[in-house]
Amino acid sequence: MEHKEYRKLHAEWYDLVSGGKDDSEEIDFWVRSIEASSEPVLELGSGTGRVLVPLLERGFDISGIDTSKDMMDRCRAACKGKGLKPQLYEQSMLEFDLPRQFGLVILDSGGLGLFVSDQDIQSTFDRVMAHLKPGGSFIYEFEPVLDERQNDNKWTGDWVRGHDDVVIAWRSRNKYDAATHVWERLFVVEKYVSGRLVETEANERMGRFFTVDEAVQYATSAGFEEIKATNWLTDDPPSKDSHVITVQCRKAAEKAD
Q1: CA 231 remoteness from chain centre
Q2: Least buried of 74, 115, 216, 234, by fewest C-beta within 10 Å?
């Protein structure tokens, strides 16, 4: 099933790292996607609100689900600081059950790669279908299988500076199975305050890369229509060197009597 980690220190690290990036091009893409579909919007794996909060600020009716309470607490805090009132649900993508349907459901940040098994993906797509309005859209992203992916099994890492003399350092070590396209990662996060180590957290992660045909077939099997794969944030066909690919599809519209 989708990973349920992203605990307290991991969430703090994610907030600091994502807060230093310029996501304006990505947010503009989601604005165009909402305008081409309809509201309300549901974001699967909404996390700390990197996408959800800017869309709320622009006045869109968007809800989010996530399994990490620590990530969602940070999203709520960010919304409170901006005077926003988010609708957030601590639920699994595999079995979420919400009180309304949506005009658009999004699974961003390469989120399909959170799943390892085909069965879990099918369960998630079935829940998406159940929560979409007739004619509603589903947009999901994945990291494709690339020749350059290697199982080097070496430690890599970096650090980022926060407020109040906080520094968060991280390191990770990956294993990759070229036959199944499944990866495993040990992700270690350390928090320093005024140069003193105060907290350490280790997260074990698993995920998967996909071919374009595999990723599209999930939508086909779930009954979606008008399925189109493109390079990330564009309308161009997937290229061999793209590191993120987007799939857009629709639920069938109601037939007129």
Answers
A1: 16
A2: 234
3 state SS for 131-193? HEEEEEEEEEEECECCCCCCCCCCEEEEEEECCCCEEEEEEEEEEEECCCCEEEEEEEEEEEE
Residues of the chain with CATH 2.20.25: 155-208
Amino acid identity of 81? Answer: G
d(CA 238, CA 104): 22
65 SS3 class: strand
CA atoms within 13 A on the CB side of 168: 20
* Residue type at 100 in one-letter notation: R
User: Do the bridges between strand 102-107 and strand 41-44 make them parallel or antiparallel, or are there none, so unpaired?
Assistant: parallel
Tell me how far apart the alpha carbons of residues 147 and 222 are, in angstroms, rounded to a whole number.
Answer: 29
What is the CATH topology of the domain spanning 8-144+209-250?
Answer: Rossmann fold (3.40.50)
CA distance linking residue 6 with residue 203, whole number of Å = 7
With 0-12 CB in 10 A as exposed, 13-18 as middle and 19+ as buried, what is 129? middle
If one looks up domain 155-208 in CATH, what number appears? Answer: 2.20.25
Flag whether pLDDT at 1 surpasses 90.
Answer: no
Contacts for 126 with CB less than 8 Å, ≥ 6 apart: 222
Distance in angstroms (rounded) separating the CA atoms of residues 105 and 136:
8
Strands 225-231 and 245-250: antiparallel
Burial group, residue 18, by CB count within 10 angstroms (0-12, 13-18, 19+): middle
Q: CB within 8 A of 149, min separation 6: which ones?
A: 176, 178, 209
d(CA 116, CA 251): 24
pLDDT in tens, 220-232: 999 999 999 999 9
* pLDDT number for residue 2: 47
